[in-house]
Amino acid sequence: MEQAWRSIQDWFLGPRCVLCGDRASVELELCEGCLADLPRLGGGCPRCGEPTPAAQICGACLRRPPPFDYLYAPFRYRLPLDWLVQGLKFERRLNHASILAEVLRRVWRPPDARPDLLIPVPLHASRLRERGFNQAIELFAPLARDLGVPIERRLALRSQATPAQAGLDARARRRNVRGAFVLRGNADRVRGKSVVILDDVVTTGSTVAELARVLRRAGARRVGVWALARTVVP
Predict the structure, then answer these.
(1) What residue ranges do the domains of the chain occupy?
(2) pTM of the prediction?
(3) Which of 1, 158, 217, 234 is buried deepest, with most CB atoms within 10 A?
(4) So what's the pLDDT on residue 26?
(5) HSE of 108 in the Cβ direction (CA atoms, 13 Å)?
(6) Are strands 222-230 and 70-72 parallel, antiparallel or unpaired?
(7) Residue 126: which region, alpha, beta or left (left: phi > 0; alpha: psi -120 to 50)?
(8) Separation of alpha carbons 41 and 21, rounded Å
(9) Pair 19, 38: CB distance under 8 Å
(10) Of 151, 215, 159, whose CA–CA distance to 187 is shortest?
(11) CATH topology of domain 39-230
């Protein structure tokens, strides 16, 4: 009954914001107020994206540079963005993918030149069957089309069914993904290329760092990371 009433409301009143229920545009199920209130990530370390004064390289990256050249994420991972992401990943609310993809297109200002290839962090085959989609692809496919850069959906493979990273500390996360990724076929597809790893949310960076190492060993000239959001260390 509630769904039928919502359908009647949509028919007469138009789209509603998924966050507050106010009027929204046809292109984006968010009102202008909620769109403006999404938690933006300001200037940060150009290597890992962690917020730093004057966007300087952070101490951690100076001591131990990550295997990727830069990380760009326009948002902080907190409410209400985390609700949208979790609804997509764990409740199969695919309209959240459309919302977040359109938000990315509107705010995207990457710090580097256009790459040659985009490589999503792969899900293990069992996780992909369970979920039915790779959220990184869903989020970045429209932007990739705009940029004219191909997403290599089958180049990287998650060869180990690792436990979920949630709840693990940084050291445990690194151990959890060690050796988890391989490249299929001919490594010439990345040799000498500028490659970007796609992910939905970066927390400690362990997952994207492990995939970046694999791409470096295959001869990638430059490796960047694009994500929707980043968890900020308190």
Answers:
(1) 1-37, 39-230
(2) 0.88
(3) 158
(4) 79
(5) 20
(6) parallel
(7) alpha
(8) 25
(9) no
(10) 215
(11) Rossmann fold (3.40.50)
Strands 194-202 and 222-230, by their bridges, are parallel
Please identify which residue in the block is written with the tokens 């390289």.
Answer: 57
Q: If you search the block for the tokens 């990457």, which residue do you land on?
A: 110
Environment class of residue 163 by beta-carbon count within 10 Å: exposed (0-12), middle (13-18) or buried (19+)? exposed
pLDDT in tens, 53-109: 888 899 999 999 999 999 999 999 999 999 999 999 999 999 999 999 999 999 998
Alpha-carbon gap, residue 113 to 147, rounded angstroms = 11
Amino acid type, 15: P
DSSP the chain: -HHHHHHHHHHHH--B-TTT--B--SS-SS-HHHHHHS-B--SB-TTT--B-GGGPPPHHHHHS--SSSEEE-SEES-TTHHHHHHHHHHH--HHHHHHHHHHHHHH---SSPPPSEEEEPPPPHHHHHHHSS-HHHHHHHHHHHHHT--B-SSSEEE-S-PPP-TT--HHHHHHHHTT-EEE-S-GGGTTT-EEEEEEEEESSSHHHHHHHHHHHHTT-SEEEEEEEEEPPP-
Kindly tell me the burial class for residue 135, based on how many C-beta atoms sit within 10 Å of its own C-beta (0-12, 13-18, 19 or more).
buried
Q: Are 72 and 111 in contact (CB under 8 A)?
A: yes
Query: What are the residues facing 225 on neighbouring strands?
Result: 71, 197
